[in-house]
Amino acid sequence: MKRALFSVSDKTGVAEFARALKDRGWEVIATGGTQQLLERKGIATTGISEVTGFPEICDGRVKTLHPAVHGALLARRDDKEHMGTLCGLGILPIDLVCVNLYPFRQTVAREGVTLAEATEQIDIGGPSMLRSAAKNNVSVTVVCDPADYAEVLEEIAREGDTTPELRLRLAARAYTHTAEYDMAIAAYMRREAGLSEKLFLSFERTQELRYGENPHQRAAFYREADEVPYSLASARQLHGKELSYNNIQDANAALELLREFDDPCCVAVKHMNPCGTALGADAADAWRRAYEADPVSIFGGIVALNRP
Questions:
Q1: Residue 126 shares a structural domain with residue 268
Q2: Domain ends where: 132, 160, 193?
């Protein structure tokens, strides 16, 4: 019998995922709140304490940091010594880990959150399980994003198990998940401690661009994971074809220049250079003045206004 271990903060779709594995004969192991949710949904589970033979302690801070969990994840299935050790200790392998981490970033984004509150959202066991499962991706499937549940189930239904190619991709995503998590914690703790000699950056790709600054170059548009107010990265495109590299550069330049003014303003930018910037009685007046500054260069350029 294959075994899956569930321990999630984001419970989106987890009951359906666990039920589908259960229906295929898998044993479902779960921790704390995840087990309570699955049991309420009528999905029989094995509690983590039954696996470790040890109770969850310290308000759940310690529950999965145990050889019965990490030995079950890290043992190489093709190594007789590894498997003999598991057998001698009565440890059964775990074939799939479904884990996502405490909502640290969402917690520290709240106004007025305390250091003590933030500290309680630092996950220890979750990253350890993700890293153990990812390290042994030759045999173990690691799932940290609910968006991957459907693909995992499709492969299991078709192949009887996930393929090595999918397990490798999921392992890479798991390492990315833990790296971004640790980066958010480090950045927050360093701010709290008054340290500033390191800068951590994390960006997500929002779209592939048609080409880069020149037609023969490739480019993509990335934005920070945390939304920044009045940023082009979180703007909504209403119509038209996808923006190009130069469109984005020019639009950002126009937006940054527009920030300098409170009165009705219009900014026109072409190839990173403003060809017209004007204040007016209203948006239409500002537009007319900006256009008249250079009616030739503005053709094909970006126009930005700070009024509807």
A1: no
A2: 193
Identify whether 238 is part of a domain. yes
| Average pLDDT along the chain | 89
Q: Are residues 181 and 262 in the same domain?
A: no
Active site residue 271: yes
Assess whether 80 carries a catalytic annotation: no
Which residue among the candidates 2, 11, 135, 177 is catalytic per the annotation?
A: 135
pLDDT value for 104:
86
Distance between CA atoms of 97 and 30, rounded to whole angstroms? 10
* More confident call, 76 vs 287: 287
* Domains in the chain, number: 2
pTM higher than 0.85: no
Identify the CATH number of the domain in which residue 9 sits. Answer: 3.40.50.1380
In this structure, are 173 and 257 located in the same domain? Answer: no
Is residue 188 located within the same domain as residue 265?
Answer: no
Q: Are residues 110 and 229 in the same domain?
A: no
What is the tens place of the pLDDT at every residue in 131-140?
999 999 999 9
